[in-house]
Amino acid sequence: MSDAIHRRGLMLVLSSPSGAGKTTLARSLLAADSHISMSVSVTTRQARPGEIDGQDYHFVDTQAFGEMRNRGELLEHAKVFDNYYGTPRAPVEDTLGQGHDILFDIDWQGTQQLQEAAADDLVKVFILPPSAAELEKRLNTRAQDSAEVVAARMSKASDEISHYPEYDYVIVNEDAEQARVQLQAILMAERSKRARQTDLSDFVKALRDTL
Question: Are strands 74-80 and 83-88 parallel, antiparallel or unpaired?
Fold first, then answer.
């Protein structure tokens, strides 16, 4: 797509059962593509080691989260494993209008709400693990959660995976680099859709006038 044609940004959603590798995939895409940035969610959960407030998440208490939700400041929100997560509305709308894309690492509940709020801007990708055994291995390897939490995440995985038909694309994340290449191809194709190129008609008119 030519830089002379302005386009509206898109919202690229990645969802998966916990441990399928979507966070690693998201980071590799962000490192490879300067035209997309990560949506920074608001959450009531505690920060994990190495996470930075305002960069990884906006960490707030339950009362502050409820006030944001009640004021209509969240595009979507959900409760996951006893914690609340949500997407601030204003920065997303500003970014899309500037022609920049936003990457979302959210679950199927949040994706359904984004579908209701902004279906035309949404591109939904579901990430599957290659096997249940590999999923459990990844959850244990990252060593962020207790054995009880890992068991809970495995128990919930089947229900989460059942929502894959709600997504536009599905990637089986067996090899991280191959999965990134697939995701980049999806993003490039979606950027080129005629409906997202807001100045296309003017560009074509000018082009025809010079022929």
Answer: antiparallel
How far apart are alpha carbons 105 and 41 in whole angstroms? Answer: 9
Left (φ > 0), alpha (ψ -120 to 50) or beta: where does 72 sit? left
Helix residue spans in the chain (DSSP H): 22-32, 62-70, 89-97, 108-118, 132-141, 147-161, 176-191, 200-209
AA identity, residue 89: R
Q: Is the pTM of this model over 0.90?
A: no
Render pLDDT for 74-129 as a digit per residue (tens, 0 to 9).
999 988 889 999 999 988 999 999 999 999 988 898 899 999 999 999 999 999 99
User: Which residues face 127 on adjacent strands?
Assistant: 171
Question: What are residue 169's DSSP bridge partners?
Answer: 125
Which structural domains are found in the chain, ordered by start? 11-39+100-204 (3.40.50.300)
Whether the CB-CB separation of 78 and 85 falls below 8 Å is answered with yes
Helical spans, DSSP H, in 56-175:
62-70, 89-97, 108-118, 132-141, 147-161
Q: Which residues contact 80 (CB under 8 A, 6 or more apart)?
A: 107, 109
User: Residue holding tokens 């949040």?
Assistant: 110
